[in-house]
Structures are given as C-alpha cells and as structure tokens.
Amino acid sequence: MAQVLPVEITEELKQGFINYAMSVIVDRALPDVRDGLKPVQRRILFGAYQEGVLPGRKHVKSAKIVGEVMGKYHPHGDAAIYEALARMAQPWNLRYPLMDGQGNFGSVDGDPPAAQRYTEAKLSPIGAEMLLDIDKETVGFRPNYDGSLKEPEVLPAAIPNLLVNGASGIAVGMATSLPPHNLGEVVDALVAMIDNPAITLEEVMRHLPGPDFPTGGKLSRRGIQEAYATGRGSLRLRAKVRVEEKGQRPMLVVTEIPYQVNKASLIAQIAALVKAKKLEDIVALRDESDRQGLRIAIELKRGANPEVVLNQLYKHTALQTTFTVNLLAIVDGEPKTLSLLDLMRHYLDHRKEVLRRKSLFELKKAEERAHILEGLLIALDHIDEVIALIRASEDAAQARSGLMARFGLTEAQAQAILDMRLQRLVALEREKLLEEYRELMEEIARLRAILEDEGRLWGEVKRDLLRVKERYADPRRTLLADFEENFNPEDLIEDEPVVITLTAQGFLKRIPLEAYRAQGRGGRGAQAGKTKEEDEATHVLVAATHDDLLFFTGRGRVYRLKVYELPEMGRQARGVHVKSLLPLSEEEEVAALLSVRGLEGEGDLLFATEGGMVKRTPLKEYRNLGSAGLIAIRLHPEDRLIGVALADPEDEVILATREGMAIRFPLEEVRATGRDTQGVTGIRFKRPGDGVVSLVAVKPGEMAELLAVSTRGYGKRTPLAEYPLQGRGGVGVITYAVSPKVGTLAALLKVKGTEDLLVLSKRGLALRTPVAEIRTYSRATAGVRIMNLPEDDEIASAFVVEEE
C-alpha cells in the first residue's frame, strides 16, 4: 500500500531547483575542460562518426545526423541539436569548424541556416581529429539516456579544442566565455609546457600572446595577461579599418569586424546615428561585401578628419566591442574558474591519459597477435606431426585438445592452427609470419617502454601535437595592438563654448552658447529653463566642452566632471539632478562652480565665503581629484562658500558685498595653506546682515574695469583704477549705490569691454548682451538697466563671455 509522507514544500523546491541547476551546469551549458565540448556537441560529433559521415566521404542531410543524435543520445528538441550542429560549421563563429557544412548555414549578417532537410554536413578533418582513436578504449563510455547504447564521457580530442575554438554558455547562476586562439600558437605553448612543467604565464605568452578570433579585427593587449592569470577579464576588440579616397573625399573601409558582431546590425546602427545627426561627417554608407570578403564603405564629407570620425564610430557603434573572458569549465564533474595555465595542464593531462590507454590497448592487441603467431610458428615447425594429429582426431574439439597437450599450446593458439589455411604451409608464408612476429615484438617493446617511462609518454603527446600543428595550423588573423592608449574620448567631442546652469534644487544642464544670441541692453531675455515655483536658478557659467568642471559644495568638498559629461539639453529643459552625476550626500548642495583646463598647472585656487573669509591653496593639491571628491576648504557651520577663482601669487583680490562695498588687497597677504583649512579674514562688514557675493582676481596695474550687476537688473562699468589697494581685513570702499529701486549687488565681474555679459534670473530667464553697451560710471552710482525683470524676479547669477 502506498504511503504518503509529509514534505516541507520549501525544502522540496530548494532541492528540485538545485538538481535542475546542476543538470544545466554539468549536462547542458558548460564545456568539459578536456575536450572543450558541451554534451550536445559531443553527441553530434560521435553520432556523425557512428554514421560514418567522415571527411573523406560525401555529405549527408543534416536531418539524418540530427535524427541519429536525437534518437540515440540526446533526447531533446531537434531545433536545438541542429542549431548546435550549424554553429559548429560556421567559420565566423568557430576558429576551426568541427563540421563541414554544405548549403546555407547562415551568414555573418545574422541570417539563420536553411532548414535541416535542405543542408548537408559531415565531420571536418579537425572534427575527425576530436574522435581519433576513440575505438581503442582511450576514453570511458557510459549508458545513453535509455540504457540501450553507450556514449563517450569525453572525446579523445587530439585538437586542443577548448583553447582553439573557445566556448560560451549561460548556466544557472554562472556563465562561461572562453576566447578562441590560434592552433599553431596553442601547440607551441603546450609543447613548451611539456618541456618545462614549471613554465610561467609570461613564458607561455611568448608563444601564445593572446586570443585569435575567426573574424580577425584588432585586439588590445591591455587586460590579456590579467584574464589569463585570473580566469576573468575584459578585452577590447576593434574592426580593421583603412582610409581610402573616392574622388576628393576620404572614405573609411571596414575589412574585418569584431567577433560575434552582426554586420547588418552594425550597418543599421551607423545609419541610425547618421540619421540622428550624431555622425554628421558621413555622407554615404554601403555594404560592398562579396565572395572575396567583407567590405563596408563609409564615405565622408570633403575635408572631414577620418581619424575623428573613426573614433566616433568606435565610441558609438559595434566597430569597437568588449569581449568578456570567464574561463569556466567542468573539471571532474564540477564547474571551476581556471587560469590559462590550468586549462593547458588539464588538456595535457587528458591527452597523456588518452595516449596511455591507447598504448595499453595496442599492447594488448599486439601481445594477443604475437601469442597466436608463436603457436602458428610452432605448428609450421612440426607441420607433419600436426597434420597427422588432426587427421587422426574425430572432431575439432579432440584436435584442439590434442594440439594443446602435444605442443603445450593455449586454446587460442590451437584454434588458430585449426583455422590456418593450407597456403600458409609454403616456405614464403612462414617467412612472412616470422617477419610479422619480429615487428610485433619490436612494437611490444616500444609500447612497454612508453608505459613504463613517463618521459616517453609525454614524448608521444608532444609528437601528436606537432603532427596536428603541421597539418592544420594557419596564420594569425587578429592583430594585437596597443590602441587603447591612443584613444582619447575628447577627440569625439568638439571643443566649443557652452552655458552651464544650476538651480537651487540642484538641476544641472549644458546648452550651446550659440543658443543665446546677443540682445540689446534692457531686454527681457529668453527662457533658459523650466523651474518649479519653489525652485530658483542660482549659477550660470560659460565653459568649453573639454574643460574640467569643479563642483564645490556647502560642506567644503570638491568634485570633478568633464563638461562634456554633463547632459546637453535645450533652453526649455529643466536638466538632470546633480546628485545623479556626483556622489553627493543627502544634505550636500553645490555652492560654487569653476571651470579649469586640467589640474596639473601652476597657480592657486582662491576661495571666498559669504562671511568674508578668504583662503588660498595651490592648484596641484587637487591633482588627484577623482569621482569620490576631496576636501577643498573647512567652513564655519554658519558660513557658506560663494566663489572660487584661479589666481597667481602676484595677483590682487577684490571682494564685493551684497550692500555694495568692495575691498582690493594683494593676494600675497593670504598665506597659501593646505586643503583642509579655513583661511583668513578678507573683509569686515559695516552693516549687520551684509555678506560677500563676488570674488575677483586681477593683475597688478591691469587696464580693466569692474562690472557691477544689481539684483533688479541694473548695472554699470567702473575703471579698476578707482579701487584703491588696501590691507586685508578692512571694510573697503563703496562700489555700488544700492537702493530699493535697483536692489542689492548681485555680482561684480572683471571686464575689458569686448566681451558679452550673460545674466540669469531666479525664474530662469537669461540675457546675453554686449558689455560695451553698458555705460561707465563712478563707484558710488547705480548705473543703467541691463535686464527688464518682472516684479517677482531678480538676478541670480552673472558671467562674462569672452570674445570668441
């Protein structure tokens, strides 16, 4: 009677999934380290071998091989089996195809193979090498799925298939990705390991410098050694491209593409970028591939720089790809990540065992034959007595027993004498038997020597490898190069001026400067971005796309981004939040922006706080500035950073306050200190609630003017000479006449008169106007209207745009 047992469902599911996962890992998705084959591939090759579909014979229908494999060894869908068979016949997927296909087996454009009833296949010569000597007990066999037949646990693999053809597969919780290699280089490396078992990876790489992909291309040397050493890595692949001319226009011609890149998809990808105007120098794109090989022609505009366009293609298309290396294979029934040296040792150990078992098999057969020959020679030496004994016997059994008793023969020898044909009695036949026996004894001695001496056994492994190299090795296809070091992302981006805007809530964007055309003084400006009711614009900055943009936060830290890394948007767009670009903490906000061209130059970073503090730190102190940021300045809890500028030690500093005061003093009065310092007092305030709004660095005796802009959109120019040089820490002099009508001072900027002024209001209005249109007044005046603002708006930030 059946018994029902209670089972915890979570445990049952857990165990069931573990069993499923191990089945996928070991019996489906991952290759064996010895022959480099997954079970379906091994069964296809063995099924073709069993059917006699060998290299020297005619092709048979793929459906016949698939049916043989499915019915006898692989009880899964025929589509999956045919897909595996087709891949083994595709020269763009396998460096050395294991099947020889006839018919439509797909293309590098991603076209699928024709149906299996239309295509034909047989083992390729290299595929046959994978099965060499399988009938000599070289590998173990196990029952097939229904126990009616035997199938090999692994193939003898005279070809180092895992190394030369690579493998890829996705199991449960793990994946494998082994790159293909050149057969000649792999054999040289394996022979070197046989000669020197303690060989190092560096010594191996003198023979095997890197992968060799079937589609050619160029491979960066960077990362190869690390991938070989650890079993994991990432390799950069590029297409091979040459520059030709058509008429007076340059043309890029692609002759080889990266491994596993679909050519049709690649061309469609380039065409889409041209249509989207991201690749504006391309005027024509053609696929000129034919029977002679791959050729993609990319015509450029007259005067275009082919190198720049090529770098853009590498950046944005599959002309440059990454091959992920994960040297994972099945070792003794378990998945393991291996180094290149491990893969080589496992293969050599497998071949050593195959040749040992082959030698044992051949020794057994040779000894059996020698044993028979010894009996035949005894019979020939006593032929008359043997004939008389046989004639006197009543039946074969009595004759056999008589021979065994009279001449001391074994049953097998006696039976061989009884089976001997009469023609063997002639003298010539006896000499043939003697010659065969002598040769057999020599072979037996050779085989015994191989089995007794490990050095001779390794010599056989080496001899087999060199035979394979001589027969199948071909030139390397993939060029190893050091192209990464010459690749500069900035080459892809035009170095042009852009406007960077930032709001109080941290929304950031860049806009081409040309989007702001110059207007006359007194205009209302153009909308520079959408802001929420509770958000306000706070910063405007003009920089070049190749500049480094430094973000100084209210907590005194500094972060860096390339200007081109900021999102480029239209004037009406709101932008993206700065915290999606920088690792800012929850309460950290950007207090100041500065653009610089590198951090390795001379000079100092000059800081000013709202509370009147100034600090000077050498620029070189920030040269290690990375994505995690650095401490820039130590701030008092109630103080905040309002500005940062680049200055030289001999410069002079001008600080301007909200209430219209300004002080000018030599920078040398501010001693240079490290990053984690707070600085010294630069200006003191006459009125409570006043604070610094602007920081300006000027050269001694410089012929320049200071442009003051008020919060209500008024402004003026004043000669720099009207600002006396004072000592640090004073209250300064009047620089602007503040009032309810004109508002307080919003910004003080150094100008020469040839620039444009770009002002940004809190509601997102922006106005660009020539500085020359703003009149010159003395210090204690308010000036003229620059921007006509609504009553509920005011100036948030101002920036001088240098003459282009």
UniProtKB/TrEMBL annotation:
Gene Ontology terms: cellular component: chromosome; cytoplasm; DNA topoisomerase type II (double strand cut, ATP-hydrolyzing) complex
Matches recorded under SMART domains: TOP4c
GO-annotated molecular function: ATP binding; DNA binding; DNA negative supercoiling activity
Other known facts: Few gyrases are as efficient as E.coli at forming negative supercoils. Not all organisms have 2 type II topoisomerases; in organisms with a single type II topoisomerase this enzyme also has to decatenate newly replicated chromosomes.
Keyword Oxidoreductase (UniProt): no
Family per record: Belongs to the type II topoisomerase GyrA/ParC subunit family.
Localization annotation: Cytoplasm
UniProt organism field: Thermus oshimai JL-2
Ranges in a coiled coil: 430-457
Name listed for the protein in its UniProt record: DNA gyrase subunit A
Domain Topo IIA-type catalytic: 30-492
Motif GyrA-box positions after renumbering to this chain: 519-525
Active site annotation, chain numbering: Y118
Assembly notes: Heterotetramer, composed of two GyrA and two GyrB chains. In the heterotetramer, GyrA contains the active site tyrosine that forms a transient covalent intermediate with DNA, while GyrB binds cofactors and catalyzes ATP hydrolysis.
Gene Ontology terms: biological process: DNA topological change; DNA-templated DNA replication
Entry-linked InterPro entries: GyrA (IPR005743), GyrA/parC_rep (IPR006691), Gyrase/topoIV_suA_C (IPR035516), Topo_IIA-like_dom_sf (IPR013760), Topo_IIA_A/C_ab (IPR013758), Topo_IIA_A_a_sf (IPR013757), Topo_IIA_dom_A (IPR002205), Type_II_DNA_Topoisomerases (IPR050220)
Predominant place of localization: cytoplasm
Catalysed reactions, semicolon-separated: ATP-dependent breakage, passage and rejoining of double-stranded DNA
This enzyme's EC code(s): 5.6.2.2
UniProt keyword annotations, A-Z: ATP-binding, Coiled coil, Cytoplasm, DNA-binding, Isomerase, Nucleotide-binding, Topoisomerase
